[in-house]
Amino acid sequence: MTGFNPIEQLAGIMAMSGFPHSSGMRIVAAEPGRVSLALSKRPELTQFFGHFHGGVITGLADQAAGAAVTTALPRGRIAVTVEIKINFLGPADGEEIIARAEAMQVGGTIGVAKVEVISQEKGVERICAFATATMRAVDLPAEFR
Questions:
Q1: pLDDT digit string, tens, across residues 108-119
Q2: Which ranges of 3-134 would DSSP assign to H, the alpha helix?
Q3: Which of 12, 85, 101, 126 could staple 115 via S-S, CB 3.0–4.6 A?
């Protein structure tokens, strides 16, 4: 019998239809309680100046926070957002953005994560946003287990 692998569960969730998949979010790194997700720039993800749209940045931060908390939960549980706060520190004008999330506290019902969003251009990284998120642990519906 094989053990539970939260990283495999995360990969399956990321492959499902919906915004994370259709926007092109991808897993860069993952371990229990820590996840990095990336998103390459496409015109439909930008605002009128050509920078990543704030809603897209927030969406990536939200997904990374939920993923970080989810990887720290037991089999069959997933984190969903209760609250997210984001501070934009500068334009996300790189070729891709990377959200690095860490679960700071995970309990039976509530988890809290912090996220740094990095704008990357030709290998040079600059922080463009910082977020904190509160997540609720819920049962993953049976059809997704």
A1: 999 999 999 999
A2: 6-15, 19-23, 54-70
A3: 101
Quote the CA–CA distance of 119 and 97 in Å, as a whole number: 5
Cα-based distances in Å from 98 to 9, 77, 141: 21, 25, 29
Residue found under tokens 């549980």 = 77
Q: What is the pTM of this model?
A: 0.93
Per-residue pLDDT tens for 127-138?
A: 999 999 999 999
- Cβ neighbors of 2 (< 8 A, separation 6 or more) are none
Amino acid 62: pLDDT? 98
Sequence-ordered list of residues with C-beta below 8 angstroms from that of 38, at least 6 positions apart, any chain: 25, 26, 28, 96, 97, 98, 99
DSSP state of 140: P
pLDDT in tens, 84-104: 999 999 999 999 999 999 999
Length of the chain (residues): 145
Angle formed at CA 28 by CA 24 and CA 21, multiple of 5 degrees: 20
Provide the CATH number for the domain formed by 6-144 in this structure: 3.10.129.10
